[in-house]
């Protein structure tokens, strides 16, 4: 089955759009886009590799960070073929089945990231508010169980929605607003009343991300209350500093996602250029910034990366000396 091509669209396919009105500059636009993809792939892969290899990072906080990096990595890979296909080869056409599959992964990994951020908020809450119980609660088995529950939750809630969409008839040949398949964008082109599917999609998003965000906010209210009760200013600063990275990750994830979703669902007359900009911010901001934030702000991650680079750098000369001058 051909996933996408650049021929004339058939009645069962959609047309992807990267940057409306800038089609002639797609090759040049692809340069910064490829750089962002490279940063996202390399950054998240590096953090994931460092946490796996470095035994000193085998702790609950870093396990959750590894989950976040893995989700960002998967989210990046799920959109890469269509985005680069549109920019490099003008391969705009995508079949309905391929579009639904991509939509499942895009929304699935987005909701998965939301759940991981909740788990990280709970980790910070326990570390600051209940430090004596932290080691008892966050055992390796409990962390594994949390990861499994997060994955099962996404599949149970999202798979039925995708399955229902396979029974819906769409107006073929319609131009989507993004270079990837996004539910609020697709649902506008159904033969049936799109309001019902749109409402269900919005309910699902509000239920998943809305409850997640409320839980995160509630966790930080309790954290702030505990921190303010600490007398020593240095201890207050140290406690809050452990939350800075997570707060940044929450901000760069939820702000673009909520903005894009509400733009599609509540402001149907929004220009495609605005939708395109929001889509690219939503697509690139979390996977690109998360590894940068955690690398710069988390001393242990930074030190582990430097140790790994130093180990590889010092290993090279020792290997060559064993081989002799003729290598």
TrEMBL record:
Family: Belongs to the G-protein coupled receptor 1 family.
TM spans (from-to): 25-51, 63-89, 101-122, 134-163, 204-227, 239-257, 277-296
Protein function: Putative odorant or sperm cell receptor.
Signal peptide extent: none
InterPro entries named in the record: GPCR_Rhodpsn, GPCR_Rhodpsn_7TM, Olfact_rcpt, OR51/52/56-like
Any one Gene Ontology cellular component term annotated for this protein: plasma membrane
Boundaries of every G-protein coupled receptors family 1 profile domain copy: 43-294
Encoding gene, per UniProt annotation: OR51T1
Protein name per its UniProtKB record: Olfactory receptor
Gene Ontology MF annotations: G protein-coupled receptor activity; olfactory receptor activity
Keyword hit for Kinase: no
């Amino acid at each position: 089955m051909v996933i996408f091509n650049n021929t004339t669209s058939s009645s069962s396919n959609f047309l992807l759009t990267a940057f409306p009105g800038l089609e002639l500059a797609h090759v040049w636009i692809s340069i910064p886009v490829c750089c962002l993809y490279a940063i996202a792939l390399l950054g998240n892969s590096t953090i994931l590799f460092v946490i796996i290899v470095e035994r000193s990072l085998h702790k609950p906080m870093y396990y959750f960070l590894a989950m976040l990096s893995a989700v960002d990595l998967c989210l990046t890979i799920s959109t890469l073929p269509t985005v680069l296909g549109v920019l490099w080869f003008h391969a705009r056409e995508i079949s309905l089945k391929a579009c639904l599959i991509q939509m499942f992964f895009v929304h699935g990994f987005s909701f998965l990231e939301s759940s991981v951020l909740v788990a990280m908020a709970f980790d910070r809450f326990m570390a600051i508010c209940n430090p004596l119980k932290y080691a008892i609660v966050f055992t390796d088995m409990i962390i594994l169980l949390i990861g499994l529950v997060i994955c099962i939750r996404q599949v149970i809630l999202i798979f039925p929605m995708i399955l229902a969409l396979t029974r819906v008839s769409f107006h073929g040949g319609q131009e989507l607003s993004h270079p990837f398949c996004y539910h609020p964008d697709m649902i506008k082109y159904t033969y049936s009343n799109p309001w019902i599917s749109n409402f269900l999609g919005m309910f699902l998003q509000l239920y998943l991300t809305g409850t997640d965000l409320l839980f995160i906010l509630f966790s930080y209210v309790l954290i702030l209350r505990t921190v303010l009760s600490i007398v020593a200013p240095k201890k207050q600063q140290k406690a809050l500093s452990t939350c800075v990275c997570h707060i940044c990750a929450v901000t760069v994830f939820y702000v673009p996602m909520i903005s894009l979703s509400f733009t599609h669902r509540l402001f149907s007359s929004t220009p495609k250029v605005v939708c395109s900009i929001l889509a690219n911010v939503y697509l690139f901001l979390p996977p690109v910034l998360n590894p940068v934030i955690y690398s710069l702000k988390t001393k242990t991650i930074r030190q582990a990366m430097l140790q790994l680079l130093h180990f590889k750098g010092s290993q090279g000369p020792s290997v060559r000396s064993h081989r002799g001058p003729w290598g």
